[in-house]
């Protein structure tokens, strides 16, 4: 009998030792992974049951469970009586509380499987265990939110990855051209310039919760899920992080607006909102949500797809808010100034496509993640199509931009400035636009273009769709300018107008990064064009005056007087009109003046000599050669003047 009792006692001691070893391993976060912990938890329950099985009576076993239940209850209720917080009770006390709760859970499971579970005493103990467990779960659910609130890191402004915005480009233009697509001319308002910092952005993850608190939160999750209170944990956990994400969006200055509100916004306001949307999207998808997903994985590790499911539920609404704004932008009018903002949105989204696919992977099979992914992909495709449509319609906007009056002073039109500055921004998006256009059939009739130019355009298309398109746009612009030049009554001013605008096109392209889209041959051809217009202007404007200065063999005093008077009148008329003309580029203006001055002075000096030889009085010779040279330097300043000199006596 003593040997038998000794064997039983040894078995009990061994069982107790194994039981405590399993509990120790199950409580370790460093030694075992999630799958091992599940096995240990199940073994823990079995050992708990076995520890109650011995040669004692059923009543003794029930009494042992009752005593253990009271001990665990006392531990749990001590926090309630003191009104203290589990997480604020001191080192080790929080885990002691969780161990007591886990003990109640195991005892409740043991009672369910004991033969006495149907007896009055068994039912009482079982109900008591469930009541204790329910109260403990309610406290854990409440304190979970408090732990998260106390230990959540407040993200600094620099951690929000808010990238800077470059200033918008501006230019001077004539007030007569006042609307982007009107019956007159296109106004000059360069679209918002892209932030070059986008390529310098790097993803950085941070701890959203203090690392020391993660272990405790994870332990709470394990106890609540093991006690079949997983839904309560999910509700509290998801609710907290949904609110935290809303607060984070406030730091990013993101406000939810309806589609109707977006459509009513003026362009300046909408442009600012789109820029902010791009910055916020980079921060949200590239920084905050990955940090949040990592945290969910750390806490819910070992619970199957629970991490993915909770993350998607806590994040879906805010992501859909972002996507809804993008959908509203697409619905708006497809005007040229929207192109670069749409491309910014497209590039931000395409740059984070893989991130979003990972973040919203449907591990739980609910379909919520795939819904978000599909909406994201759909918006990305629509943004690309809208940007492509706007880009390809630029030529039509230019071609349809007509005018009934000649542009003031023969200067550079708003349309020319707008188109060239618009194209300057294309360089930043060249790669994206090429991807969007690569399957587009762009070889069409570019307008009034020579066969040589068509050949050049086709060669450019073979190299790059964007190169082809930009060259076709400049050809359409030239045709538009040529039509507008016909509005000038003065043939010479027509060529000043064409010279100014083509020279401006050459200068903008030659001194910018888009030069690679045009090539040296295009530049040489257009340099010849504006020089030819300058030559033609000179021939038309000065041809008649220079012909008056020629030596036609006339020697009569009366005839020389008439010639002198005609020259004076012609020069004064030319001076009055051409001081009102405009050549905005200083170097070009000086070149035209120098050329005209040289030809005029070289012809006038011998003419003045013949007048003096013919004894023509100085009262008829109003100007010296130097006077004429000086007066020519007044030309092309867009400030009309008159020569009201007294006749010399």
UniProtKB/TrEMBL annotation:
InterPro entries membership: Cullin_repeat-like_dom_sf, Exo70, Exo70_C
Gene3D superfamilies for this protein: Exocyst complex component Exo70
Domain Exocyst complex subunit Exo70 C-terminal intervals: 275-633
A Gene Ontology molecular function term of the record: phosphatidylinositol-4,5-bisphosphate binding
Keyword set, alphabetical order: Exocytosis, Protein transport, Transport
GO biological process terms on file: exocytosis; protein transport
Gene Ontology cellular component list: exocyst
Pfam family name, one: Exo70_C
Tree of life domain: Eukaryota
Family: Belongs to the EXO70 family.
Function recorded in the entry: Component of the exocyst complex.
Record's protein name: Exocyst subunit Exo70 family protein
Organism: Oldenlandia corymbosa var. corymbosa
Lineage: Eukaryota, Viridiplantae, Streptophyta, Embryophyta, Tracheophyta
């Amino acid at each position: 009998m003593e040997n038998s009792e000794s064997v039983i006692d040894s078995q009990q001691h061994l069982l107790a030792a194994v039981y405590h070893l399993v509990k120790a391993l199950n409580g370790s976060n460093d030694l075992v992974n999630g799958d091992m912990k599940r096995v240990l938890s199940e073994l823990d329950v079995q050992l708990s049951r076995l520890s109650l099985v011995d040669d004692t009576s059923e009543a003794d076993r029930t009494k042992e469970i009752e005593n253990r239940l009271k001990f665990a209850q006392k531990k749990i209720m001590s926090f309630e009586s003191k009104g203290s917080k589990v997480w604020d009770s001191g080192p080790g006390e929080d885990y002691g509380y969780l161990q007591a709760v886990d003990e109640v859970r195991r005892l409740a499971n043991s009672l369910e499987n004991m033969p006495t579970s149907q007896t009055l005493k068994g039912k009482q103990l079982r109900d008591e265990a469930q009541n204790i467990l329910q109260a403990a779960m309610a406290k854990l659910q409440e304190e979970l939110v408090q732990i998260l609130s106390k230990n959540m890191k407040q993200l600094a402004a620099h951690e929000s990855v808010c990238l800077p915005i470059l200033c918008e480009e501006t230019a001077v233009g004539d007030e007569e051209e006042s609307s982007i697509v009107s019956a007159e001319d296109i106004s000059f308002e360069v679209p918002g310039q892209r932030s070059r910092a986008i390529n310098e952005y790097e993803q950085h993850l941070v701890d959203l919760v203090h690392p020391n608190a993660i272990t405790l939160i994870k332990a709470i999750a394990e106890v609540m899920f093991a006690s079949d209170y997983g839904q309560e944990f999910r509700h509290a956990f998801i609710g907290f992080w949904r609110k935290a994400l809303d607060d984070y969006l406030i730091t990013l200055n993101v406000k939810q607006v309806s589609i109707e509100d977006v459509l009513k916004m003026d362009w300046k306001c909408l442009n600012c909102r789109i820029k902010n949307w791009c910055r916020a999207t980079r921060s949200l998808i590239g920084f905050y949500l990955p940090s949040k997903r990592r945290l969910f994985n750390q806490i819910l590790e070992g619970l199957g797809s629970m991490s993915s499911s909770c993350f998607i539920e806590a994040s879906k609404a805010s992501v859909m808010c972002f996507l809804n704004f993008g959908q509203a932008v697409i619905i708006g009018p497809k005007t040229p100034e929207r192109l670069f903002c749409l491309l910014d949105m497209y590039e931000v989204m395409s740059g984070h496509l893989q991130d979003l696919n990972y973040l919203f992977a449907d591990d739980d099979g609910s379909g919520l993640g795939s819904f978000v992914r599909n909406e994201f992909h759909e918006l990305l495709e629509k943004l690309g199509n809208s940007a492509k449509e706007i880009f390809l319609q630029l030529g039509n906007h230019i071609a349809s931009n007509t005018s009934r009056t000649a542009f003031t002073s023969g200067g550079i039109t708003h349309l020319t400035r707008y188109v060239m500055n618009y194209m300057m921004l294309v360089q930043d998006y060249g790669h994206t636009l090429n991807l969007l256009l690569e399957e587009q059939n762009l070889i069409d009739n570019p307008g009034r273009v020579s066969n040589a130019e068509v050949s050049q355009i086709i060669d450019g298309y073979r190299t790059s769709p964007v190169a082809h398109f930009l060259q076709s746009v400049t050809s359409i612009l030239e045709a538009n300018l040529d039509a507008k030049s016909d509005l000038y009554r003065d043939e010479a001013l027509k060529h000043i107008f064409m010279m100014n605008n083509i020279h401006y096109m050459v200068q903008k392209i030659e001194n910018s990064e888009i030069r690679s889209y045009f090539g040296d041959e295009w530049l040489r051809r257009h340099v010849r064009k504006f020089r030819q217009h300058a030559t033609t202007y000179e021939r038309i404007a000065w041809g008649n005056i220079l012909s008056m200065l020629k030596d036609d063999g006339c020697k009569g005093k009366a005839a020389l007087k008439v010639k002198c008077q005609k020259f004076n009148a012609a020069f004064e008329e030319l001076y009055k009109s051409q001081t009102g003309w405009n050549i905005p580029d200083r170097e070009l203006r000086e070149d035209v003046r120098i050329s005209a001055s040289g030809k005029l002075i070289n012809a006038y000096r011998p003419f003045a000599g013949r007048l003096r030889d013919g004894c023509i009085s100085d009262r008829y010779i109003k100007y010296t050669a130097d006077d004429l040279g000086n007066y020519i330097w007044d030309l092309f300043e867009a400030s009309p003047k008159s020569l009201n000199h007294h006749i010399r006596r």
